[in-house]
Amino acid sequence: MDNFDLRKYLAEGKLLKEDITQFGDFISGMFDGSVDEEEGFQSDVWKKSEYASDAYEGNDFMELSSYLRDIGGKATLEGNPDITVKLLRNGDIKWSADVTLSEGKLLKEDINSILRDGGYDEIDDLNLLKTVEKEYREGMSAEDINDLTMRIEDREGGNIDFSENQLNEAAELDMAKSFLENQGLKVETVTSGNDGEAKASKFKGVSNPEADKTAYIWDGGEGDSNYKSNGKEAFYVYMPYNEDIKKEMDSKFPVLDTGGKSGTYYTLTIEKK
Description:
Elements: H1 6-18, H2 24-34, E1 40-46, H3 48-51, H4 58-70, E2 74-77, E3 83-87, E4 93-99, H5 108-117, H6 126-135, H7 142-156, H8 164-182, E5 186-189, H9 193-200, E6 214-218, E7 234-240, H10 243-252, E8 255-261, E9 265-271
Parallel strand pairs: 5-6
Antiparallel strand pairs: 1-4, 2-3, 3-4, 6-7, 7-9, 8-9
Helix pairs in contact: 5-7, 6-7, 7-8
């Protein structure tokens, strides 16, 4: 023990403790897949028999186990919330955290409740539901959540059991939203045509085109309650008075009619395919 360097020992220990951040993504991902959406202290176990394989990022699990063994078996990843991980004798890893839901974050039941009340199918796939929860923004309507779900499904190559009509309509609406967003516009949904016209009438128009950065979409209603144009089901876009964007919309979408107020805004009636 003559060559024992206390300062070096403490420094190395400090570095090991700080090094828990190298497993931050893995621990956070495992935590997100395990935690219940409710406030309070929670704890569970990640079993070695389940996760120590290539199919479940086994390398990360085993490396984390080795790291915990080297530092005495326990560490805390600081964040929101702080996640404490402890290596058990059988090789399992126990996690614990004091969970506080952020303001505006919905529970799984609330997401599906909004969808159900809005006439949309609930989300049965738990992994999909978790992804929707992460991307949910406060104030989203059932239509917004449904559109978000469709985008995630499209992005991840999945599929939800919607009818063909619902898929086509949602795709057309979603494409219109994406197009407008790609033009640098913020897209908001409105509950009626009158609402859309009222909001769009406040645009500055040609007097100050740079001031108008929002477009509004009304889905026109569903089924028998849909407000039809020339006998065709349609949705409606209320957008700034930009002729270039309007021409592109005409070329990309089945535009049935164009209205609005000259010099201020366009109202595009687009068929639901």
